[in-house]
């Protein structure tokens, strides 16, 4: 039996396209007729906003595996292949240990009902982010190739790799995703080369170009593929998904 592969999108820095990546990657995976569960572990609840135009009247359900999980308010079925676990924004209850998310993703129904689980995380290294990283088979770190962002990313990737060696994390893959890339900028090209030299090409996913259409799509509450299928943003996330599904 093939079990659900769990991918956590994480970066300790805010505004690095984590949610944009979760929304558009999950939508692309679902377009390949693979069943995706998106778990929004950031109680800003922005994943829901990114899909709102697709699931306006969707009622929240509460399957057995979501009951007793006070972090989440319910499950929204965006389409046959794409479901979202939405966080409880109003009544946020801080999880006091790291096991609650493990119980959810390892639940037999989740493992059987989905091919992929994709988790969005908050930009702070608290229990929620640590808990999410601890259940990951794959950790994807989206980051803009700028010097300031780069030092944080190198530290985060190194810390994760050390934690894997010490068996504190079970992730088999830690992958860097360059985002908001402008290849015209020498600085971006230099940092990308630096990442390749440091981590090797196989740890670096195909980059996402800077493309304002991604922000516009989010503002119109839908994945970029529906909002502007001919945009660079749509093409880049499609390419990312095709590579991602070979790796993961
Ligand atoms: N490739 C891109 N080109 C241009 N703008 C982008 C790109 N990717 C994301 N953005 C925009 O950058 C901003 C931050 O993106 P996003 O909300 O996905 O980041 P985040 O890491 O989830 O932020 P937070 O840490 O607050 O959760 C948003 O306005 C988004 O529309
Ligand atoms: Mg976010």
Task: Explain this structure.
The chain has helices at residues 18-31, 46-51, 99-105, 108-113, 127-135, 147-165, 186-199, 212-219, 224-227, 232-247; strands at 5-9, 36-40, 60-61, 72-77, 82-87, 116-120, 138-143, 173-178. It is α/β, with parallel strands linked by helices. The chain has a domain at 5-141 and 212-247: Rossmann fold. An eight-stranded mixed β-sheet has the order 3-4-5-2-6-1-7-8, sandwiched between helices. Helix 6 (147-165) links the parallel strand 7 (138-143) and strand 8 (173-178). Helix 1 packs across helix 10 (232-247) and helix 3 (99-105) packs parallel to helix 5. The longest helix is centred in the middle third of the chain and has 19 residues, at 147-165. The two termini are 16 Å apart. Bound molecules: adenosine-5'-triphosphate and magnesium ion (MG). Residues 14-20, 42, 123, 179-180, 208, 210-212, 214-215, 218 line the site of adenosine-5'-triphosphate.
